[in-house]
Amino acid sequence: MVKYCMNCGSELKEGIKFCSICGSAIEKQPITQTQPQQQYEQQQTSAPISPPWKPKKKLIIGILAIIIAVVIVLVVILILFSTGSFSGVDSRFVGEWEQDLGIGGKFLWKFNSDSTLATGSSGGAMYNIGTWKVNGDQLCLYNNAVCYTYEFSNNGNTLTLNIFGNSSGYPLSFALTKKS
Predict the structure, then answer these.
(1) Which of 106, 97, 178 has its CA nearest to residue 141?
(2) What is the pLDDT of residues 52-85, one digit of tens each?
(3) What is the distance between the alpha carbons of residues 159 and 114, in angstroms, rounded to a whole number?
(4) Residue extents of the structural domains in the chain
(5) How is the beta sheet containing 116-121 ordered, strand by strand?
(6) Highest CATH level, class, for 87-178
């Protein structure tokens, strides 16, 4: 006896569990030849049959792969820009610098790559005093409390800072020398 799929009406081969046309599971007794021919023809001419689930699964996997690739590219871009002026950290400043106070005294400045700023006296303990960042042509210190224009000289080993705006008790100008 010839059997037909109850979902799309296509002829089924003996012993299969899924319709080869629409992918529907063959659970119940399929339509047999005793079904009226008119009903069978209506099923054949109805709306287009959706493809089996396997191509949809490949499409979903493809879309997920594209999304993952985009996320990876974005993470790489963020990592690359995290050390540039985009994040306020400029690698030219990172490291220890000395400020000559005269009479043999030195004051140390430590610009860390994580944007923290530490200071201390020469040979003494260093204290975290806030953050630093580059904002255009300015170096902003103490959690942006004061901003200085900056200029590098001596092959990047001397840094001259000049106050930008009102000094509010901060020095108007000073020079730092890169510590070896």
Answers:
(1) 97
(2) 555 678 888 889 999 999 999 998 877 766 544 4
(3) 20
(4) 1-50, 87-178
(5) 127-131, 116-121, 105-111, 95-102, 173-178, 158-163, 146-153, 138-141, 133-135
(6) mainly beta
